């Protein structure tokens, strides 16, 4: 039997966690490995786990990323301790003999139309981005996810010659409370949900 997390843990993961626009501190490579080792256990369709992540830390990598950012995201992203480029591998099915060993799942995907494959990969990598955010929060970090960037430029700079395409960027570090806006409203249960 699992027990409910205590209020402090629920606050850290959800209720008081926020999207930050400025960060302080550093994030070690070891912490990034811990983050991945947590997020990788989140479920995806047929355990496809299509997310491929580039953790941008160096000035050289930042210089490659900068031209792809929208004007509103440039300064905060260049200043973040780490930027996770979460992409998705369109050939994710090549890993299924290892990732889904109890049956031959590769044929389920390998002959699908490219649009359908992209949808499957993007959907599951978006799930994995959410797991990345929760894993970061569980490790005491804060995040600023965004889609305000030129995917084609990111793909050319970081994934050229591969079957990987960019999906979402996530700034990671220790959030500066002065950088957040008042929390925006959320829909109440009765407006967003039905129990049938």
Automatic annotation (TrEMBL):
Q: Which CDD domains does the UniProt entry name for this protein? A: RutE-like
Q: Which InterPro entries match?
A: Nitroreductase, Nitroreductase-like, Nitroreductase_HadB/RutE, RutE-like
State the name under which the record lists this protein. Putative NADH dehydrogenase/NAD(P)H nitroreductase EDC34_10861
Keywords noted in UniProt: Flavoprotein, FMN, NAD, NADP, Oxidoreductase
**EC number, UniProt record:** 1.-.-.-
Which protein family is it in? Belongs to the nitroreductase family. HadB/RutE subfamily.
Q: Matching NCBIfam families, A to Z?
A: PRK05365.1 (NF003768)
Signal peptide (from-to): none
Catalytic class of the enzyme:
oxidoreductase
Names of required cofactors:
FMN
Q: Which Gene3D superfamilies match?
A: NADH Oxidase
**A GO term for molecular function:** oxidoreductase activity
Q: Where is the Nitroreductase domain?
A: 16-158
Organism encoding this protein: Thermomonas haemolytica
